[in-house]
Amino acid sequence: MSSGLWRGAGRRLRANPAAMVALAVIVVLVMLALAAPLLNPNSIEALDWSQVATAPGVAHAHWFGTDRLGRDLFVRTFEGARTSLAVGLLAGAVSLTLGMGFGTIAGYVGGRADYLMMRIIEILSGLPLVFFVIFLTVILGRNGYVLYASLVAISWLTMARIVRGQTLSIRRQEFIEAAVATGGSPARVIIKHIVPNVLGPVAVYATLMVPQIILVESFLSFLGLGTQEPHASLGTLVAEGAGEIEAAPWILLAPGILLALLLVSLNVLGDGLRDALDVRDPG
Amino acid sequence: MPRYLLKRLGAAIPTLFIIVTLSFFITRWAPGGPFDEERALQPEIMANLQRAYGLDRSVWVQYTRYLRGLAHGDFGPSFRYKNFTVSELIAQGLPVTLELGTLALAIALAVGIPLGTFAALHRHSAMDSVAISLAVLGIAVPPFVVLPLLGLVFGVALHWLPVAGWEPGSIRYLVLPVIALALSPLAYIARLTRGGMLETLRSPFIRTAVAKGLPLKTILTRHALRPALVPVTGYLAPAVANIMTGSLVVESLAGLPGIGRYLVQGALNRDYTLVLGMVILYSSVLIAMGLVVDVLHAWLDPRVRFAQ
Question: What is the ipTM metric for this complex?
């Protein structure tokens, strides 16, 4: 892929104010999530019995207030953000790799293998996967691996379809033929020539996939099937806060607003990238 | 068309069969059983319970029995709700969930389509930007964040509507849950309608209609709307899935006595028959939605009809 396309895309992205604001918000949130333990001396588990369910303020050490057990919400909210981001990025990276591998192979090899691989994707996409995830997390135990595995299982399907579509559209072009004619093995052609040329749409959909994964993770955590106490994710914090909106609305507000901000920013950035790279859904 | 529908229905049965089989064996192979209590039951009682529910037989016998029951429309007895069959539990909660879901879908369509059309007609205007921003917000923010925030504003602060609760026949308790559920499909529908409309308005037959001097309203309703809605119909099945998943959390947050709680509760309690019944119910709704979408698609786009 010519670097000119990426440079042009970078220029168009910088000219898009909404996307740049979103990028700035994401950078600030990531830095805060990483730095929160340094900024505030409270630990995520420490119970402050003198300050149970205290409203936010600067007079005491709990800037976002405390929850029912007297745990500091500033530290917990940003721990939640860290969990959500880590899950989104890690499960996203695995789905991306899986989808790239599956999609390029199906698209490049074609024929019966492609037909078979796409039927698998079709059947899996037809299943009500979120219900299966609920099912699996509960029955196989509520541990981190099952959570990650189910998030990946949901996310990689779309990526595989998109990568296959892109691969199909470039497979017949001359530079691929030239690579094959000069004796490139399928693996080499895929890695050296196909992968770099599908990176544009992949970047777009990866950016849009991360908020999707964060959303599902917080949904599962909200139901009590994801992140477990004493650890926090934005989903568990929202669930905690939702039960207390009359007595202590701040328990909901900090994680709720943070989750909304994070999801909106990631989506806006993804949309901006899509416009900048001029990607259309190949279906 | 009828032949095509029959063919599609025929294809739906194996899908459903695979789902049932997979779910059945996953539940049976999972560690832990429905009668595990904190204090172990006496072996005699345990054996009696197992026999009463047919759990003492081999998995294969249980499976064939279950399938035979299903073929007669019987989901079996619930393992945890004593003296209730799964069908009875579902029949109790279904009307509430159905009312919630249909209202949410209806509002998403009734607001989303006009909003998207409006945004397409006034492209790059201030209203268009507002509509797009609303759509991004709606797509990004999940119902379990929206509902408590709505409750905080309209319930706790303004006292206009109840935060949670249920009273048969009263619509007041449904307002906030329906809005929370409708928001994300509404946003998608608005976005898809806007895209479809922009694409359609560029096509030659619309130019002809404009050249003939037809009023804007006629062009929209008689010519542009049908092709512009094709992408929206494609989204209907995901929209229903979206609303069904959303109602799992919305019902529990709003204290509505629907069927949403049975899936998670049933799974946590190892109430296998209840979970299986719920998975089958949800899958059937999704498969049926797929059929509805195909019919709508053929009606909106004549090319689809000829291709069959």
Answer: 0.77
Q: Which residues of A touch B149 (CB under 8 A)?
A: 252, 256
Asked if B140 lies within 8 A of A238 by C-beta distance, the reply is no
Nearest residue of B to residue A220 by CA position?
A: B249
Cβ within 8 Å, pair B27-A139:
yes
How far, in Å, CA of A94 to CA of A111, rounded?
Answer: 27
Q: Give the closest-approach CA distance of A253 to chain B in angstroms.
A: 8
Residues of A with Cβ-Cβ distance to B139 under 8 angstroms: 267
Q: Which helix (H) or strand (E) holds A21?
A: helix A17-39
Answer yes or no: is pLDDT of B164 > 80.
Answer: no
How many contacts (CB atoms, under 8 Å) link A and B? 104
Structure tokens at A158: 């779309």
- On whether the CB atoms of residues A96 and A206 are closer than 8 A, the answer is yes
The torsion angles phi and psi of A66, rounded to 5 degrees, stand at -130, 165
Helix (H) or strand (E) holding A82: helix A73-109
The closest CB to that of B142, out of A135, A215, A245, belongs to A215
Closest by Cβ to B145, choosing from A131, A132, A259: A259
CA atoms of A59 and A41, how far apart (whole Å): 15
Q: Write out pLDDT tens, residues B207-221.
A: 898 899 888 888 888
Domain topology for A3-45+68-277: MetI-like fold (1.10.3720)
Question: What 8-state DSSP symbol labels residue A72?
Answer: B
Alpha carbon distances (Å) from B212 to B201, B215, B218, B228: 15, 9, 11, 20
Least confident of A84-88, A119-123, B106-110, B277-281: A119-123
Task: Outline where chain B has alpha helix (H).
Answer: 2-29, 43-52, 59-71, 86-121, 126-140, 143-150, 172-201, 204-211, 216-218, 225-228, 230-254, 260-268, 272-300, 302-307
Taking alpha carbons only, the member of A270, A267, A271, A240 closest to residue A253 is: A240
Judge: B267–A128 Cβ closer than 8 Å, yes or no.
no
What is the domain partition of chain A in residue ranges?
A: 3-45+68-277
Min distance B139 CA to chain A CA atoms (Å): 8
Residues in A closer than 8 angstroms to B294, CB to CB, are none
CA closest to A268 among chain B residues: B136
Query: Which of B144, B154, B273, B281 is the best mutation test for A, with the most CBs of A within 10 A?
Result: B144
Closest to A96 in 3D by CA, of A158, A6, A170:
A158
Residue B221 per-residue DSSP state = I
- Give pTM, 2 decimals: 0.81
